[in-house]
């Protein structure tokens, strides 16, 4: 999907993130399923994940992350014009989780809706918000990636339950002024023929949950790991190269690459194919596991607050997710 000229440049004015207090380590999982810390770490790079409390929903995680992003941006909740929540684990099928977040924040002027693009959702939301600001429809937007994946994991399946965690990340976008940073280029893509390799097969209109099939746990995450690995690496490499070229950058210009935090082997493969040294690649997978739409948003906020990039630095965000979906963004901070 190509980039077109924008009437208004758009920047990220603030970031925020939130994860639940409860931590479940690999050793904790080894007590209840047939696995070990060594098995999980060697195959994924994950050491622990955060799990939401019983009464803590996706909207709560999203609201907490949003508050931090708004505080950093200097934009009051009542002045927010657009809220997009990217999630595959909404509080309810309807209304949208974004509506709950709007109410929680008191952002009463904002248009609010959800998008579902799995792990690519946050960058899909960024692309949408950027376009809606750059064409003059809005002056600012709050985008959030938030997931309570613990509600959609089969905790008896050792191949998948070790991978995922709960959390939320947010960013505030607004029109950029002279001398400020801006979003340089974006790319999105989808290949629907791969819907079967990473999905939640039950719980929708195609396969509703019934008393007869409830024991099968069809409304749980299902994944074919090898197929996902190969497709993810190629999609992320191509998307990254596209935005780097579109932004007239070279590998040497890039201060930091922030990839989707799903598997350390995938992250290493991406760095190798882009000829980016490991010290320029941000990784926090070991602390959170795969938080789907929240993953790159949490990583962006952590890298920002840790000072891994400064005003004027060029950074790349790149993701892939179920669908198969993928996206990348080049940013001048």
Describe the secondary structure blueprint for this structure:
Layout: E1 10-18, E2 23-25, H1 26-30, H2 37-44, E3 48-50, H3 58-73, E4 82-86, H4 97-105, E5 111-115, H5 121-134, E6 140-148, H6 158-161, E7 166-175, E8 182-190, E9 198-199, E10 222-223, H7 225-246, E11 254-259, H8 264-273, H9 285-288, H10 295-305, E12 314-321, E13 325-332
Parallel strand pairs: 4-5, 4-6, 11-12
Antiparallel strand pairs: 1-7, 2-3, 6-7, 8-13, 9-10, 12-13
Contiguous low-pLDDT stretches (5 residues minimum) are none
Put simply, the count of helices is: 10
End-to-end separation: 23 Å
- What's the mean pLDDT score? 95
Biggest sheet features: 5 strands, mixed
What characteristic shape results from the CA principal axes? globular
Rg calculated over all Cα atoms: 19 Å
> What portion of the residues fall into strands of 2 or more residues?
15-25%
Derived structural class: alpha/beta
């Amino acid at each position: 999907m190509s980039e077109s000229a924008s009437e208004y440049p758009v920047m990220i004015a603030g970031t925020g993130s939130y994860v639940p207090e409860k931590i479940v380590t690999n050793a904790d999982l080894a007590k209840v399923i047939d696995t070990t810390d060594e098995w999980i770490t060697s195959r994924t790079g994950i050491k622990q994940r955060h799990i939401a409390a019983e009464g803590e929903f996706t909207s709560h995680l999203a609201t907490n992350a949003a508050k931090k992003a708004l505080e950093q941006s200097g934009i009051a909740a009542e002045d927010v014009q657009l809220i997009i929540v990217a999630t595959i684990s909404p509080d309810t099928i309807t209304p949208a989780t974004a509506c709950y977040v709007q109410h929680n924040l008191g952002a009463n002027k904002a248009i609010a809706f959800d998008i579902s693009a799995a792990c690519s959702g946050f960058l899909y939301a960024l692309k949408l918000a950027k376009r809606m600001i750059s064409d003059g429809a809005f002056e600012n937007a709050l985008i959030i990636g938030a997931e309570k994946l613990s509600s959609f994991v089969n905790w008896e399946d050792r191949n998948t339950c070790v991978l995922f965690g709960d959390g939320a990340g947010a960013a505030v976008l607004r029109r950029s002024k002279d001398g400020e940073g801006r979003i340089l280029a974006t790319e999105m893509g989808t290949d629907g023929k791969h819907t079967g390799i990473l999905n939640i097969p039950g719980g929708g209109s195609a396969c509703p949950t019934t008393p007869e099939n409830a024991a099968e746990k069809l409304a749980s995450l299902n994944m074919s790991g090898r197929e996902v690995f190969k497709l993810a690496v190629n999609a992320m490499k191509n998307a990254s190269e596209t935005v780097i070229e579109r932004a007239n950058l070279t590998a040497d210009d890039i201060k930091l690459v922030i990839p989707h935090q799903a598997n350390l082997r995938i992250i290493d493969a991406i760095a190798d194919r882009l000829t980016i040294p490991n010290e320029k690649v941000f990784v926090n997978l070991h602390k959170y596991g795969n938080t789907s739409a929240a993953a790159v948003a949490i990583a962006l906020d952590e890298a920002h607050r840790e000072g891994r990039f400064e005003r004027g630095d060029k950074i790349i965000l790149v993701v892939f997710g179920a669908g198969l979906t993928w996206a990348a963004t080049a940013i001048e901070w």
